[in-house]
Write a structure and sequence with these properties.
Elements lengths: L16 H27 L11 E5 L5 E6 L8 E2 L2 E2 L9 E5 L5 E11 L5 E10 L5 E10 L2 E10 L5 H12 L5 H10 L10 E8 L5 E6 L5 E7 L5 E6 L5 E5 L3
Antiparallel strand pairs: 1-2, 2-5, 3-4, 5-6, 6-7, 7-8, 8-9, 9-10, 10-11, 11-12, 12-13, 13-14
Helix pairs in contact: 2-3
């Protein structure tokens, strides 16, 4: 390189010490970070021996929730298409599932504690929801200080959007108490196009009387066939009409 006068330009034979130190510092700092980023990008996996966490959100690339694992205080409330509704979180420790639209569609929840009076209560539920509705297939265990039941339920629900259903209920509950509010709630609870809002169809389990039971119900949720082995070991089979009256029984009483 030459100067404008044609004389050779002075050469930088040794960089300033401050610049040299700064370059060494950046190399030492960014080198490992670059390698870590490269390794992370290459594998996209991180291995932990053990981890303590209060909540984990599993999300799609666009941020939609697919699953939430949490303790009680950080548990999530109902979500419909990505937006909360119904009631606040903080009461459902466990795992909540979400569909492709970001709407809750089932989960696994559990609880159990003993009170100061020495009595205990415990419950576990594993449920699957109808699309844009509530649970229609679920396993449940409920225990009120030894009075317990557990079983599998299959249910029917009317094709009503749960978001609209809950919003309408909440609007009614804000009305002043009186005949108009009572009538509005009664109308809200009515079947839609002849289908009840909820109707148990099948139950297989153990009831609070310690009997093993199978209940088969009609589309309105009325038991029509009841198979039972009671706490003493006696089996029975009963047929019922739509009003719950036993029309036939084996063995006969």
């Amino acid at each position: 390189m030459t100067s404008s006068t044609g004389a050779p330009a002075p050469a930088l034979t040794r960089p300033p010490r401050l610049l040299q130190g700064y370059a060494l510092f950046l190399t030492a700092l960014l080198g490992p970070l670059g390698m870590a980023a490269y390794r992370q990008e290459a594998s996209e996996r991180v291995h932990f021996k053990e981890i303590d966490v209060e909540r984990i959100n599993i999300v799609e690339p666009d941020g939609k929730l697919r699953m939430v694992l949490s303790n009680r205080p950080r548990s999530i409330g109902p979500i419909y298409k990505g937006q909360p509704f119904g009631y606040a979180g903080g009461g459902r420790p466990g795992i909540i599932f979400f569909n492709d639209e970001g709407t809750e569609n089932g989960g696994l929840t559990f609880a159990g504690r003993k009170g100061e009076d020495g009595r205990y209560a415990a419950s576990t539920g594993f449920s699957f929801d109808q699309f844009n509705s509530d649970q229609v297939l679920y396993l449940q265990y409920n225990d009120d200080n030894g009075r317990r039941n557990m079983g599998l339920t299959v249910a029917d629900r009317a094709d009503v959007d749960i978001h609209d259903l809950v919003l309408r209920r909440d609007e009614i509950l804000k009305m002043p108490e009186g005949p108009a509010r009572t009538q509005a709630l009664l109308e809200w609870q009515q079947p839609r196009d002849g289908v009840p809002l909820f109707a148990e169809r099948v139950y297989v389990g153990r009831d609070t009387s310690k009997a093993a039971v199978v209940h088969l119900c009609d589309p309105n949720g009325k038991p029509r066939l009841r198979l039972k082995v009671d706490a003493s070991g006696e089996p029975s089979l009963e047929f019922l009409d739509e009003k719950g009256n036993v029309t036939a029984r084996m063995p006969e009483e």
